[in-house]
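Task: complex structure prediction.
Instruction: return structure tokens for all chains below.
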Amino acid sequence: MRGLLVGRFQPFHLGHRAVVEEILRSKPEETLLLGVGSAQDSHTVDNPFTAGERHEMIVRALADLPNRQWEVIPLEDIHRHALWVAHLESLLPPFETVYTNNPLTRLLFENSGYSVIAPRLVDRGRFEGRKVREAMATGADWESLVPPPVATFLRGIEGPSRIRLLAAAGSPGGQ
Amino acid sequence: MRGLLVGRFQPFHLGHRAVVEEILRSKPEETLLLGVGSAQDSHTVDNPFTAGERHEMIVRALADLPNRQWEVIPLEDIHRHALWVAHLESLLPPFETVYTNNPLTRLLFENSGYSVIAPRLVDRGRFEGRKVREAMATGADWESLVPPPVATFLRGIEGPSRIRLLAAAGSPGGQ
Amino acid sequence: MRGLLVGRFQPFHLGHRAVVEEILRSKPEETLLLGVGSAQDSHTVDNPFTAGERHEMIVRALADLPNRQWEVIPLEDIHRHALWVAHLESLLPPFETVYTNNPLTRLLFENSGYSVIAPRLVDRGRFEGRKVREAMATGADWESLVPPPVATFLRGIEGPSRIRLLAAAGSPGGQ
Amino acid sequence: MRGLLVGRFQPFHLGHRAVVEEILRSKPEETLLLGVGSAQDSHTVDNPFTAGERHEMIVRALADLPNRQWEVIPLEDIHRHALWVAHLESLLPPFETVYTNNPLTRLLFENSGYSVIAPRLVDRGRFEGRKVREAMATGADWESLVPPPVATFLRGIEGPSRIRLLAAAGSPGGQ
Amino acid sequence: MRGLLVGRFQPFHLGHRAVVEEILRSKPEETLLLGVGSAQDSHTVDNPFTAGERHEMIVRALADLPNRQWEVIPLEDIHRHALWVAHLESLLPPFETVYTNNPLTRLLFENSGYSVIAPRLVDRGRFEGRKVREAMATGADWESLVPPPVATFLRGIEGPSRIRLLAAAGSPGGQ
Amino acid sequence: MRGLLVGRFQPFHLGHRAVVEEILRSKPEETLLLGVGSAQDSHTVDNPFTAGERHEMIVRALADLPNRQWEVIPLEDIHRHALWVAHLESLLPPFETVYTNNPLTRLLFENSGYSVIAPRLVDRGRFEGRKVREAMATGADWESLVPPPVATFLRGIEGPSRIRLLAAAGSPGGQ
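Output:
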């Protein structure tokens, strides 16, 4: 039995960690597929980190969990919403349950016959990707919003400075 | 002899119907190609319906016209405006006249030697795709803006609820 | 009720016409969608004619049928077979039956729950796209293999000379 | 520390399993990334199975190994060899060693400064994807060429019949 | 020895010319590659002119320079920033120095080991592509912002009227 | 006035040089655009060298010509022959004459109203890209088939060993 949780994880924060923990606890027999959405994107304001960097964040953030009951899988966008479920079905091993609070994800998977569960969000006011990125850009406290190993990783790759730079940069090549 | 009218038809409304009727009346010897633009898009705020759903709307909306003097053709975007006319010429059977009020469509086709006619728009203040979508999203009266068979079809596929959902959803997969 | 017949129609020959006639006769209440596959391709050895030229061939070849019980729809390839049915479902109005003798088409549609019917092929030894193209390339009799209006059309666009040229040309730009 | 082994795994056979075992044994401190190449392809003669099906095969084939020292990651093609290493670097978490017997893979990674190791191939005459697929197509013994759980899985999804069908089918849609 | 300056040059203005002149003066032994970014785009508000039109502008704008110490090269976007440097390395002859004031361009090239120099911008308040396009759209004085041969060229292709039209048009095909 | 010569130049050989020389001699008032076709491809059997490497070969091969009457421009494929001329028109500055011996290139440009000239080929039996690549692969004499500066360049980048390797390699990632 497998479940699927898709997110962009830009970056992987404590809200993500709480959702993963709750799913793993409530479904000890399931393997959770962590789909890294928009895997092809990086170095943009909304998607500053590569799929590989996000993969690394997740591995570090979940390293202390007792069982290796999860897998990380990059998912490139297909940009055609009507094909999105078929796209994921072709890339992923079989899964039965989808965890999402995104209403379009719910609609598309329900139309294809999947069971969809809305995970309880923890303190959504604080733990939201956009807010973490803004805190990194403005020099506000962001480290308390992510698991400590993610904070260490992001400092190591100079994540905050990359995010500040992207806010000013637009696309490469523009003069 | 064929004419071409390209639109996104999100959804097909009474303004579209009036334009089609006027063209068919004024050119009884022409077949009108109804090109469904951005055919690859669906389930977004600006393009909520698939090309197939839009095709179905058009067939129902025009079913009472006396002659089958029109054809519906999905047109995927090419995202390179300088190639757009060549793209359409390769996908469509030969046509001589283009009907449009879009100044870029006019420019591109005139540069390629086509005859371009601006159809008279009926009550543009009311009959505009964006306004119909907004009425569907907000629960205002939208049914009087589309041909009755289109209203029936859109209720059947729960169009208003899809549009409301899309306004809240962004892309699938985002958490 | 609609049925779907997908082919590349390079060119539309008497075998295609026979299949269409039989489907229309056996299902007088159905509209037949004629999907023009590989619509984006043209000017190659296997796909010499544009989707628009193939559309024109079909319209001329079927003009003498009593009812306009069919529609022509260009279908660009998606190059991912696992998404092909979802791709067609998004582009086409609803259809219930698929007509095909291609075993992969059958497999993919049956996996998605469609009813698939294998139309009886007429004299497959003669009426096959590849053989018609070869006859055009070698100067053998090809005109008796296509409906007379298609022969007229193909002569008008110098189809045989295009096919001979393509056999020698490879891609444009190669020296 | 991570190593990377990229293959198409169509299907995952005993030669793959032997290579994985040897790498894991020789590098007990490494995590091995199993990159599933041409992840977007399926239902073709050379790539009959989806990335998800191949993922499932690998998980089953390696389930009896003592440690979960490996990860499976789908890799869509980029079709530009000069960008292939950068493409993989963006999708994968950091890795230091590449295992390959493909000379182009070696060249591209060495040009980018990676350490490349050629794993010893076991009985290449028998254990080769193309030969396994041919055995499945012709009804020869293929089950002894793959790990028993892969044989069970492939029978369950009617793999041999899919492969026979693909040999006859070409692309979907062709008539 | 070669240097690289990437810009969209929509249009090529006096600020571009000043930067080119300073680079050529300071590096008389270098050939300067002028990469025309977003080469695939045209007929949009931000990218009104084709790569070919921008090429022509540059050739005319620099025709009076004493040596032909520069080359113009169209660069199609790759839309994956992590691959952008590899993309340019594959398309361009070898270069050692990159001239840019864009912080993302600097970051990406420095990460790949290039020497990056920030050219001194001349009167950035006036000489900026967006401002030139706005002046063309509003009928303000734009001719003093571009080299005289560029002004002549833009008048010849009716550039200002194209820009005004694009502001009103959106994409072709929308009704 | 400009002319256009498109080739893949894999590699640039003495036959190419002879054609360029003859064009420049016969049209002293023209600038010759040397379009490097299939610019996105490299590291394949048919396209071993990147567009940048081919650019470098051309610059070196023509460095001794008296006037800089030519430009090198990479041209990525569009894979839709019906759009190929429009694609080139958007990427290239205006040109009036096309030089080609490829019958499809001739057909497509003549259909768009261009003047097409077939350059005289010199000793086609020897000077042909495929034959030069084969000589490089087999260790036969290839150096006498290319301009001496190209031979020097190809030795410097270990071209012959790359070509031998590609013949054995297929795509990267295959095991």
